[in-house]
Amino acid sequence: STRPAAWSVCDYNYVFDPGVYLRRFFLFAGRKDYLFLIDEAHNLVGRGRGMYSASLLEKELTAINEGFSGYDSRLVCLCQAVEEYFSRWRQEMNEAGRTALRLTGLPEMLEPALESLSSALERFLSVAPPGTFTQRVREFYFELGHILRVIGYTDTDYANYAMLDGQKVSFHLFCLNPGPLLRKRLDWARSAVFFSATLSPFEYFRELLGGGTDSLNLRLTSPFPQETRLYMHVPGVDTRYKAREKSVYPLARIAADMVEAHTGNYIMFFPSYAYLNAVLPVVRELLHDKADVYAQFPSMREEQKRQFLARVTATDTGRSHLGLAVQGGLFGEGVDMPGEQLIGVCIVGPGLPGIGPEQELIRAYFDERNGQGFLYAYVIPGLIRVVQAAGRVFRTPEDRGVVILVDDRFEQDQYQELMPPDWFMPGRAFTQADYREALRRFWEDK
Length: 446
Description:
Blueprint: H1 13-16, H2 23-26, E1 35-38, H3 43-51, E2 54-57, H4 58-68, H5 73-96, E3 100-103, H6 110-127, H7 132-151, E4 158-165, E5 168-175, H8 179-186, E6 191-194, H9 202-208, E7 229-234, H10 244-261, E8 265-270, H11 273-286, E9 291-295, H12 302-312, E10 320-326, E11 344-348, H13 357-370, H14 373-390, E12 401-406, H15 413-416, H16 435-444
Parallel strand pairs: 1-6, 7-12, 8-10, 8-11, 9-10, 11-12
Antiparallel strand pairs: 2-5, 3-4, 4-5
């Protein structure tokens, strides 16, 4: 018999994204002889939400309409028909003195209006000459196509809303729980295996990744020796937003003590650039002439990313290096720094997502669904960032290093239950008020 062919499908969207999945494999109905092996599966929750969510901006629609004004009255009329919905939402928000409006259902004629506009734009693009405006229309046409696809998925697992930004309105179809839609893609395969260093708790990922009640799970502890890995919580520091100014010096002092305890390369992870930049000058002052300090900044180009990593991980200078970076960013996961390239990280706070409209919608949805809205919307995504950042230190069995967690919330059971069990070594206290002595003992016991 002939063995089935094997394909390597890189990146989630070629299987799960409704707009770009590989139709030659998955277009026809019925289960196929596929096995999905999904690496870094913790990212698929957020990626899935993005694939099955869509937005339409009034300012983009207005710009397209202005481009057609004067020579294509039909397209102008079709744009105006859609703009009327934005006008109604804006009026309703202004009258209520609000900047956001939850839509209990989509207006009855909105979808036909969007479909008519999409068809007209397609005809325009088939004959339009190349140019800046044509390219802008093409991009808008693809956005319109995506929102029309997503409209077909909207149900009780969605929150549809309009938001006011200045005087312009944005319209959003926000997927609260991507699990049911991911499940439809998983049904294409006989089996699917999700794996990651951060797939805990199982119930959360089973639901949001489309698993069933018969889904199996296997949790393995790290194969690396515990004796060469020091996980430690430093108590007495509150990194919540209201306490951040007060915490700046204590954080800088902890970072300096970590670096001074043993020559090597370190990264300190912050929940935001603002927090990072507040601590940066104090760290530089404390480590003056003792270590080289570098900081991540927003919108780094590829060359700047490489330079940052090269400087922080340099092992031929005889000096310590400390990089300051943001949790969940470029250097918090997916980057390997084995051996002496990185021997320690300090993680500031539990990495909770910022409070915003969509996180609050997720919280409300899961509060109603299972009474665990804050856990699902904030705590679990935050601890995933923490575990990923900690994982940058230990890439081989020979690696030796430290992970320091700073924030009093790390003492709470709700947070510790989400940490890998091998972070807690028998005979070694996890919370260490005298962290300097703990660092000294660890590095001397080589």
